[in-house]
Amino acid sequence: MRYDLVIFDNDGVLVDSEPISNRLLADYLTELGFPTTIEESYRDYMGAAAHTVHDTVAERFDGARLHDSFDEDFHARVFAAFQEQLTPVPGAAELLKQVRESGVRYCVASSAHHAWIRTALDTCGLSGFFTEEQLFSAQDVGRGKPAPDLFLHAAATMGVPPERCVVLEDSPLGVAAARAAGMDVYGHAALTPPERLAGANGLYRDTAEVPALLGL
C-alpha cells in the first residue's frame, strides 16, 4: 500500500538511543533509592512519556515523588551521553532520503520532549531532513503513547486522514497507540522481542526492509 504520510518514532527507529537512555534511567532511579534494572526500564518506560516514570515510581514505592528537577537532570545526563555515544540507526539516513525523494509526506512523532528529539537528530546528522513543523512530541498533546492523541495530532496537523498514515515504531506502547489511532504500523524488532510487537501489521529487523513495506 502506498501511504500519504509516514510517521517515524524517533528513539530506536531513527536514532539508536534506547540502550543509552534506558541504562541511564535505570542507574539514576537506583541512585535515588528506587531500584530499577535496565530490563525493567525497557519493559516499563520504553516509548513512554516522561510522566510515566513519575507515575510508576509513585505506584511502586508507596506514593514516593521524584524531585522537581528530575526530568531536567535526567535529560542533562542523557544529552551528555548522546554527544559521546549516540549514532543513527543503521540505514536511517538512506531511508529518510528515499521517503523524501518519493514525495510522500513524513514526520516524527515521539513521546520524548522537543529538546530531546532535536538534540538526538542533531547529534546523528539527521536534523536536515526535518523542519520544526515536522516534529511532534507528547508535550504537544499532554498524553503519551499508548494513547492515540500524539499520532492523531500529527496526522491532523499534516492534513492526512489516519487511515492514509503508517507508523514506524519500536515499542509496544507505540504500536498500541498507532492501532488506536486507526493507522497501519510496522514494528522495528531489532531490539524489542517480536512477540512484544504482535499488534503491528508487520515487523522488520533491518531498515533496508522498510521501503518495500511502504510501497516505495
Automatic annotation (TrEMBL):
<protein>
    <submittedName>
        <fullName>HAD family hydrolase</fullName>
    </submittedName>
</protein>
<dbReference type="InterPro" id="IPR023214">
    <property type="entry name" value="HAD_sf"/>
</dbReference>
<dbReference type="InterPro" id="IPR051600">
    <property type="entry name" value="Beta-PGM-like"/>
</dbReference>
<dbReference type="GO" id="GO:0016787">
    <property type="term" value="F:hydrolase activity"/>
</dbReference>
<keyword id="KW-0378">Hydrolase</keyword>
<comment type="similarity">
    <text>Belongs to the HAD-like hydrolase superfamily. CbbY/CbbZ/Gph/YieH family.</text>
</comment>
<dbReference type="Pfam" id="PF00702">
    <property type="entry name" value="Hydrolase"/>
</dbReference>
<dbReference type="InterPro" id="IPR023198">
    <property type="entry name" value="PGP-like_dom2"/>
</dbReference>
<dbReference type="InterPro" id="IPR006439">
    <property type="entry name" value="HAD-SF_hydro_IA"/>
</dbReference>
<keyword id="KW-0479">Metal-binding</keyword>
<keyword id="KW-0460">Magnesium</keyword>
<dbReference type="InterPro" id="IPR036412">
    <property type="entry name" value="HAD-like_sf"/>
</dbReference>
